[in-house]
TrEMBL record:
<protein>
    <recommendedName>
        <fullName>DUF7836 domain-containing protein</fullName>
    </recommendedName>
</protein>
<dbReference type="InterPro" id="IPR057158">
    <property type="entry name" value="DUF7836"/>
</dbReference>
<dbReference type="Pfam" id="PF25206">
    <property type="entry name" value="DUF7836"/>
</dbReference>
<feature type="domain" description="DUF7836">
    <location>
        <begin position="1"/>
        <end position="59"/>
    </location>
</feature>
Amino acid sequence: MEEAYVRLLCPECTKGWESTPSELPTHDSLFHCPNCHASRRLAEFTRTDRDLQTLKDLQ
């Protein structure tokens, strides 16, 4: 079985990256950008609505 990936984008520094849902906290948890350390809910880092839905479905 292939692992799904969620695309993330920091709303402050615009750094983009991918991660598996199992490596991330829940969508409503506080998350910190690994680049600029901006703190927001993880849902605000998801690149698209589809990425957010994938995150919710697989957690």
